[in-house]
Amino acid sequence: MDISVVIPLYNEEESLNELVSWIERVMADHGFRFEIILVDDGSEDSSWNVIFQMASAKKHVKGIRFRRNYGKSAALFSGFREASGEVVITMDADLQDSPDEIPELYRMIKEENYHMVSGWKKKRHDPVTKTIPSRFYNWVARKVTGIRLHDFNCGLKAYRGDVVKNIEVYGEMHRYIPVLVKQSGFSSIGEKKVQHNRRKYGVTKFGMERFINGALDLLSISFMTRFGKRPMHLFGSLGTLLFLLGFAAAVYLGARKLYHLSHGIPSILVTDSPYFYIALTCMILGSLFFIAGFLGELISRNSPIRNFYAIDEKINL
Predict the structure, then answer these.
(1) What's residue 300's pLDDT?
(2) Which of 3, 66, 179, 270 has its CA 20 to 30 A from that of 158?
């Protein structure tokens, strides 16, 4: 199998036949052996009926149906699990991603040895309420992750087959799949400018909450990438620093009080000073952070995936 095309969808009944026919034309023109995996993420329209009819008539069309809407990440993960192609292509079902990009994405994976190629919708046909926040989050994501992509959340992407088998897309992490790929040891990540079409049917399925969720997910994946296997490095260091600052402040206040007493200088009680309570708070918070890091380290070391790593190749074993 040359190519697996994984398409997550939600309420896209109008576009499915046109999209599948478009993909089939592209594949036939280039002689690819392929499969199309349509993942219905709990659609409330007739999307599943359309998929069922196509899958019944065409062996290369496969369908997965969720009982309810779980989100794009779950749909992608299910599609990745079933994909058998040497190259896996993902795209949205709303016809805004062009299947004409597939041959070049395939070539970049096979000939230029990229592990992953992400699309870049440089010219977007979306309202300003989507484009401006998207540019901001992509800029922040580049700064935080160190991955130089212009469009992290573009639905049109290509992967080497083994890459999708070694990543777990969960929650809302479909926005940051390049980070998951890099975290799994696949560092060759490329980018290609792709055509972005105007939406032909229906309306977007993502509201304004995606911007808040995107920021929170970026913080989460950044933390997990850096400290997921060694929480003590973060919480232990922060806790030690806070405790030492608080302890030093408390020692200073105590020494200052003793100095005043020994020289007969009038002085207020140590407990009457607001700095005493600031120092005490720092020591308590430092202790709590240290304990949190210690407990996190215990959980990490007893996790069944504490030594998880991706093996790229074996020989004579």
Answers:
(1) 63
(2) 66
* Helical packing angle, 209-227 and 128-145, nearest 10°: 10
Q: What is the pLDDT of residues 109-134, one digit of tens each?
A: 999 999 999 999 887 766 666 677 77
- Contact assessment for residue 80 and residue 166, using Cβ atoms and an 8 Å cutoff: no
pLDDT at 270: 82
| Helix pair 16-30, 47-57: axis angle to 10 deg | 30
Residue 207, CB-side half-sphere exposure with 13 Å CA sphere: 1
| Relative orientation angle of helices 274-301 and 231-262, to the nearest 10 degrees | 150
d(CA 184, CA 308) in angstroms, rounded, equals 9
Which tokens sit at 138?
């992509």
What count of Cα atoms within 13 Å lies in the side-chain half-sphere of residue 292? Answer: 14
196 SS3 class: strand
d(CA 209, CA 283): 38
What is the spatial distance between Cα 16 and Cα 183, in angstroms, rounded to a whole number?
A: 33
Sign of CA dihedral 203, 209, 215, 217: negative
- Ranges in the chain, pLDDT < 70: 125-130, 202-218, 220-229, 300-317
What confidence score (pLDDT) does residue 3 get? 97
Contact between 212 and 109 under an 8 Å Cβ cutoff? The reply is no
Residue 161 neighbours by CB under 8 Å, 6+ apart: 4, 83, 84, 85, 86, 87, 88
How far apart, in whole angstroms, are the C-alpha atoms of residue 314 and residue 167? 20
Pairing of strands 87-90, 157-160: antiparallel
Q: With contact defined as beta carbons under 8 Å apart, do 201 and 93 qualify?
A: no
Q: Could you tell me the CA-to-CA distances from 124 to 193, 198, 208, 246 in Å, in that order?
A: 11, 8, 18, 52
